[in-house]
TrEMBL record:
One of its GO terms (cellular component) is plasma membrane. Keywords: Cell membrane, G-protein coupled receptor, Glycoprotein, Membrane, Receptor, Transducer, Transmembrane, Transmembrane helix. InterPro entries: GPCR_2, GPCR_2-like_7TM, GPCR_2_extracell_dom_sf, GPCR_2_extracellular_dom, GPCR_2_secretin-like, GPCR_2_secretin-like_CS. This is PDF receptor. Residues 14-100, 127-391 form the G-protein coupled receptors family 2 profile domain. Belongs to the G-protein coupled receptor 2 family. It is found in: Cell membrane. The lineage of its organism: Eukaryota, Metazoa, Spiralia, Lophotrochozoa, Mollusca.
Amino acid sequence: MRKHYTNKINNLEECLSSFSGIEPPDADVYCNGTWDKWLCWPPTKAGARVQLSCPPMPGLIATNFAYRNCRSDGIWEGKTPNDNSMPNGYTNYLNCYTQEAREIFEKYIADKTPAQKQLMYDIVRSTRTLEICGLCLSLVATFLSLIIFAYFRGLKCNRTRIHKNLFVAIIVQVIIELILYIDQHVARAAGGEGSGAPSGQSGAIYDTPVFCEVLYALLEYTKTVKFMWMFIEGLYLHNMIAVSVFSSKPSYALYYTVGWGLPMVLTIAWAIPMAQTHHVQCWYGYYYLPIIWIIEAPRVTVIAVNLFFLLNIIRVLIMKLRETHTNEANRVRKAVKAAIVLLPLLGITNFVVMIEPQPDDLVKFGCWAIISHFLISFEGFFISLIYCFLNGEVRAALGRLWQRYRQHRTFRASSLRRMSRSFSVFTSFSEVSHTSGSQRVNQVATTPINGTTASLVRNAVNRQTNQSAGTRFPLEDKPAIRNNGYVSVNADVNSDQQIYSTVL
């Protein structure tokens, strides 16, 4: 008996209630209706097999059928005819899986007990949450770093120019990954296929032909771009520290060709045969195909070359530390510190992802999943932290900006207070000067208190005249000079606290 998948049932009660108006099978013995968390199986005559179309999920072929067997005693059959370990029986989904999904199932899930499957599911769910948190933090950190390097002209140099290209690649990659994860959770799992929408009608990116494949191709392109700019970072750093002959100005035309052009060629060379040979919705399971090595091999090569750069840089640093007669403990400490700092910058932590996980040992699998997803998802945050937020030049520039902001606020508040006092004194002076009679004028001139008022008036007039001449307000029409990347408006002063400048 075959039936087609219509809608998603959320629990056993909904499943059983859906059969309330249906007559049971015309037999004395039959298996009751049941729910296996994905499909709702109808009451079935003893000794019969019932088939339902596969649920529309990634990795499953919706046109194929899953099946269950009802034993002759009216009990759902387990994995084997004599298996009584599963009270609600066993659903065979093997015919539903694509080839890639079947290989994953047989490798990681097939031989697991229900408790082990639940533990593996909890590990995967926890690592996905960790990954999303890391991606969000990396997105914010890299975006702020890009703004800082673009805003401060004093930070512009060959090194930060390379940094900005790396940040752009990371930002685009993270945005695409977050879009795909949000699509999986909201559009597909919560409001689309997971709630019963027919395959191809969920409105999710996964169910949007061509666009989904293009998005994954763009994701792989940005990953390759990131690796190439990590290679350029390693090359530039290696040449500056270890090979002084290459310390001249770098060729940015070559850098842009390697950083943005070469990944495009590699991605196109991978995407064309993928579209021709892998006829699976949204290229599901493409990362397990041999053809992935068209773009994966250059990434591995970049990591290997950057590892060589790292070792050579550490060697040169140790040699220079020996020349300064630094003791052995300090040399080791500084070399280890340099290695730890350079590992995420050069992408060497990506080696962890390439290690084959151990599906038989769930503890090792959990450690691998958490460590690898943590390093990869927080990669942008660590790079921003080391390249930008912990950089002395950046911190000094931010400190100067904050100091100027505080000086501007203090200056503005002080000016307002002076103007308020001057206005109050002028008001008193006006009232006195308009008093009729020479006797009152003489009183003003001879009375000690009013004599003080006249003195205050004269001082206020002098201050106001000086301020109008431009001697107290540094943001008026004073000639500007350039000073270390900043514009200063009072060229005749030397103290930093007396210069009110604005960053171009």
